[in-house]
Design a protein that fits this description.
single chain, 9 helices, mainly alpha, 5 strands
Amino acid sequence: MAVAGRGVDAPRLVPPPSPAGWARAEIADWLEALPGTVLAGFDFSFAPPFLDRGAYLPGMETPESGPEFWAWLDVQCADADLGAGDFMAGAGRAHFWMGAADGAKADFLHFRVCEGVFNAGGGGKASTLFDCVGAAQVAKASFAGMRLLHRLRGSFAVWPFDPPGERTVVEIYTRAMLRHAGGRGLKLRDAAGLNVALAAFGSKGVCDEGLNDHQTDALLSAAALRRMAGEPKWWRPVGMMDAIARTEGWTFGVSGRG
């Protein structure tokens, strides 16, 4: 986790409360305690695809809006720290690809409209949140993250399901932020490369050496949100119809304008 305050000072990492790292509930506590205006970005899918099949999880009786789905999912789960593993391995198991025994992986690859826009713009191939295998999978973090959104919605607007307000949460994709910094979307693995990217967002550089790519992702994304928050085009992306905003959501920083 990283934070960028007002102005142009370099973003900074926020140390976790214990060597074990951040728990989801601890992140929620930290955000809720922040004073004043806050724009927070999370790198996970805020909702499953809806428009391509007319339902989040065909065959299961689920709500038809993002916030209602988060509330529904929260009731289905008993995992500690807002996890969703018991749902994915239990009631929702048929919807997730967890290996060859589940059949052809291609049958599980469903995507949201915004992911198609990102791919069509040369952004790369976004992952589906129904694929649970491999280091690049986003399924577990996304479904757990939806429970986190359900908790935060009491004190934050969650865009685009809610209109942006003084305290707002958005979905981000760090690869998109890397591309907006002028690169090809490749990971940054040193302070020198990070500082070049930060400068593209009008931010001062960092002095830290030995940063890993998760830390550089967080630092750059914080600086990107600070700059992009004041640019109206990101809040009104091409292709985001009301039905998409209500059901699937949208990744902040992805726009048909390129």
